[in-house]
Amino acid sequence: MAIKDLPLEEHYIPGSAACPGCPASMALRMVFKAIGKKMIMVVPACCTSVIESLHPYTSFDIPLLNIAFEAAAAASSGVAAALETMGRDDITVVAWAGDGGTYDIGLQALSGAFERGTNFIYICYNNQIYSNTGIQRSGATPYAAWTTTTVGGKTEFRKEMGEIVQAHHIPYVAQTSIGYPEDVYRKVKKAKEIKGPKYIEILAPCPPGWRFDMSKTAEMGKLAVETGAWALYEVENDKITFNGKSKLILEGKMKRKPVEDWLKLQGRFRHLFVPERDEKRLKEIEDHIDMLWRRYRSWVGIEK
Question: Residue 14 burial (CB < 10 Å; 0-12/13-18/19+)?
């Protein structure tokens, strides 16, 4: 789908408290367009709790439940159960959480909801930090990235949340990026039509957290894919398909750009280049991405 063909109706309305260039806002517009007004959204503590605007006002034209940090999937399970009891199968339940509330604090509730077969879409907008509470590291923060709690650079590689979710063998799992809004829309639209638990993760480059200019959000989302630091894929009933430029990279039809092209634009990696290049950590990052792509190729039976 081309952007010009997206629905014109908006449920993300003026008056939000989002930062300029906020990737969550961009993603929310696509989610609302893909699902429409017949939805109930569950939001734990995260940036979106602020983006909604201050009571008694709101910038979301849909029913929404704000819940405790760890409880997004549990609350969604309750909403889904209530709708089932009422015989309402026309309303989509969406849990919308950041990476802190997904990779870390909310992981146990998420796993439980998947095990129970809850009929909902869980969407993680991944800005790779606890952005709302001061830019602390999360389980999604990349290796060597600066945060307020890893001032010399994080010493661990990020979790592969997509793989953790795939281990639950739910009907639909997808990774996408705000750099490709049409891909976000398509995957959310597809998830809406599938019964049972669905998981979508959207890479959401955060200008204040990643330390780049607010006009570059979409560019950062694209470059993450082009360098192989993030992959676009979807898994339907355990069958994986790579999408867009990730598919071209996987098949050898497109060469990955150097990961430095992505790192250099982010102030959170500045210490890898100034006052002098940190060759050791830069190589470790490149080697890690190489390893990920070897694993991706093994998933689809490509030996290279």
Answer: exposed
